[in-house]
């Protein structure tokens, strides 16, 4: 008996490191932000209205410390409710868009479509993944699509599983594509054009350099996704998703291949295609955003359900089931926004941005440019909005680049790099929501994505150095 005890003591079972539940992580960050409001000095930049772009912008060199406004314990938890209210537009867009896609999934029309695709491209599933990475990447790079792609996640997760991959592959095909599309955007109106306007440089200047960067980075993403996809297709036991219940997104390959593509299912798919066309047209030509897109997805769900053979009561039941499934993901939106609410109420967002920018002034020219990249990545944790980050940081970074002897184009590039791909890293950004929709636990995503992120940062550093050397 004692021998067994000694063996147990000498060979303790290794405990696996695990990421906390995403709710625990976000509430902990909210509490940490509140603690920071008691420690960090409160401060703010002076802001003024820029009539050209109709936005309130930061006045360079205007930072000043103000009276401390620490956030108390009770106010910290009130911030969760405020975060939900603050993020209501995004919350309800995801809520309604997912439920509408759930209706489409329940008609089994997408099953029939995927089965048809599998028959048509038999043995060419890798090509399908690569094609969509470039398509979604270009949509993000040119049109600024990111949140608008959330509705496609259930389809791509189901398709990836049916092709012998897993949910991570489906999530990465969209997520990494649009993340890099923002990182190396050629003409994204929400980041590139806005940042160049603040920097006072010609709009869309430097597009050729960014196009090369975009192509290299998207190709790097294709390599990383295919590397993992081929490995798990060869040996499914190597999938990070082993043992994870995918529910309605779990599609069987053999069953799909034998699913007929009937007139009814083709009609439902026609509604989906028409909705996608309307989405692209509305976003690019009419400036549609969350309200209009939510309405579009609702119409898509209703028409798909009716054409798919559901009576009104059945349609309502399916819609409710979809809403129930996405509540978890929608709550993440409010919780992550609560972190930012606490930092705003404690007046420490501007403080952090200001003090992060100070060390750059003492660095050599080439190193200062890399420092800008690092600072923008950190700031994206605090301000996970491309346009919001441009409003706060570019009026500071643009004149700072003049002092450092760096072109303002490089400052814009550093902003882009810091804003884009880290949206798939920081829990205050978009990745927790995307993981919830795709049924991918956050720790599984990090296991897949973190090594790529580090590789991508090295590539970004190279492109920043090249931009400085070439005088872009």
TrEMBL record:
Any one of the GO CC terms: plasma membrane
Chief site of localization: membrane
Entry keywords, A to Z: Cell membrane, Membrane, Transmembrane, Transmembrane helix
> What membrane topology does the UniProt entry give?
Multi-pass membrane protein
Q: Sorted alphabetically, which InterPro entries does this protein's record hold?
A: C4_dicarb_anaerob_car-like, DASS-Related_Transporters
Q: Which residues cross the membrane?
A: 21-40, 90-116, 128-146, 152-172, 179-201, 207-226, 267-283, 289-310, 424-442, 449-470
Q: Which Pfam families match?
A: DcuC (PF03606)
Annotated compartments: Cell membrane
- PANTHER family given for it? BASIC AMINO ACID ANTIPORTER YFCC-RELATED (PTHR43652:SF2)
The name this protein goes by in its record = C4-dicarboxylate anaerobic carrier
Look up and give the organism this protein is from: Dethiosulfovibrio peptidovorans DSM 11002
Lineage at the top is: Bacteria, Thermotogati, Synergistota, Synergistia, Synergistales
